[in-house]
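Title: Request for sanity check on DNA-binding response regulator prediction

Description:
We are preparing a figure and want to confirm that the structure record we downloaded matches what your pipeline produces today. Could someone re-run it with the sequence below and paste the raw structure tokens into this thread? We only need the token string, no images.
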Amino acid sequence: MIRLLIVDDQELVRAGLRALVENTDDITVAGEAANGREALARGRALRPDLFLMDLKMPVMDGIAATAAIRADPILRDTPVLVLTTFDDEDDVLDAVRAGATGYLLKDMAADALRAAVRTAAAGESPVTPSVARQMMAQLARTPSRRARDQALAGLTEREREILAHVGRGLSNEEIGRALFLSPDTARTYVSRLLTKLAARDRAQLVVLAHRAGLVD
């Protein structure tokens, strides 16, 4: 018997999922949670075989909860099957990076959902076809770590200084004051770094700065 913990902030959705997955001889719902924090607490208490996890929730969202489950010594081996109405490619990759076993959309058929639960419980990774296409497209556009390391090595000394300050969380104005540059010049350097390092946003620059050892 596969014991599920359903995690969704909407009570009606949880009730609907319960009705769908329990209409079978081999799946039962061990419990429910309305956010990621509750999921962690109830997971430790109930020890389910699988988390069925929504992404968009208050208090702690599904991505943060998945990462926390993976870091928890009690729960880290419990599969997390992400189920959401959203198919944004950034959400998809963030969920996978956090450790989700599979990623499904809520508009899938009931039989497909039950099959995905069985697949995830067996240690495999169910992903709906539309999500799989998005993941492949995003990965094709994402530079490899080697390419980013090469780009980091090719930065000028000034660009490395700028990146280090971004890694410390400084704004463009603060970077300008620290390096005796105008805010517009600092902004231009940051934009250039985003392009050179193929970073999506400033947060990725922070990660790259720490990875490159530019920040203590």
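Thanks, this matches our download. The beta strands are 2-7, 27-33, 50-53, 80-84, 102-105.
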